[in-house]
Amino acid sequence: MPVAKLALAALIVALAAATPAEPQPLSVNADSHYSGVWLELGRTPMWITDGCVAGTTTYTRVDDRRVDVVDDCRKGGVDGKRKAIRGKGVIEDPGVNRRLKVSYLPFVTWRYEVLDKDPDGVWFISASPDRKKVFLYARRPLPQAVLDELTARARRLGYSGEIEYPPARPVAP
């Protein structure tokens, strides 16, 4: 009988060792991610962005947790009139840095979560926590084939709505 228990224990240990490890949660390097200009290349259609093209989000780090945010776009074309809104962001998960809460006006707060990102920092996908809004960002314009792949990634990560691809600026402002 002790041999059977020993064999069972050895089998359990072997199975545990063979079980793949849980994937590590996505983390974001706050210094590089929350700084500079990101081009908005795809998004959930919303009334607030109707007619907006050449969208950008500019992040400026204030300290370890706070980030100044400027979201802007152009009305009437990539060289059209600028429309912008400023916000105060707070990283809600320090160390992981995937979740950003941005307060735009006295009573307007949005939460964003980075769902996926390029290891080289070229693009990222963010969404609202409920996955009802999604945004595709990059440091430079990307070919439609890459946007299609980012769209497929967003869908695999739980977003099921429409995505529009407004014209982007040739280079970040």
UniProtKB/TrEMBL annotation:
CDD domains linked: lipocalin_Blc-like
Location of the Lipocalin/cytosolic fatty-acid binding domain: 32-161
Record's GO cellular component terms: cell outer membrane
Pfam short name (any one): Lipocalin_2
Domain of life of the native organism: Bacteria
Compartments it resides in: Cell outer membrane
Keywords: Cell outer membrane, Lipid-binding, Lipoprotein, Membrane, Signal
Secretion signal, residue range per the UniProt entry: 1-23
Chief location category: membrane
UniProt-listed InterPro entries: Calycin (IPR012674), Lipocalin_ApoD (IPR022271), Lipocalin_Blc-like_dom (IPR047202), Lipocln_cytosolic_FA-bd_dom (IPR000566)
GO MF terms held by the record: lipid binding
Quaternary structure and partners: Homodimer.
Function noted in UniProt: Involved in the storage or transport of lipids necessary for membrane maintenance under stressful conditions. Displays a binding preference for lysophospholipids.
Protein family according to the UniProt entry: Belongs to the calycin superfamily. Lipocalin family.
Protein name (database record): Outer membrane lipoprotein Blc
Organism whose genome encodes this protein: Caulobacter segnis
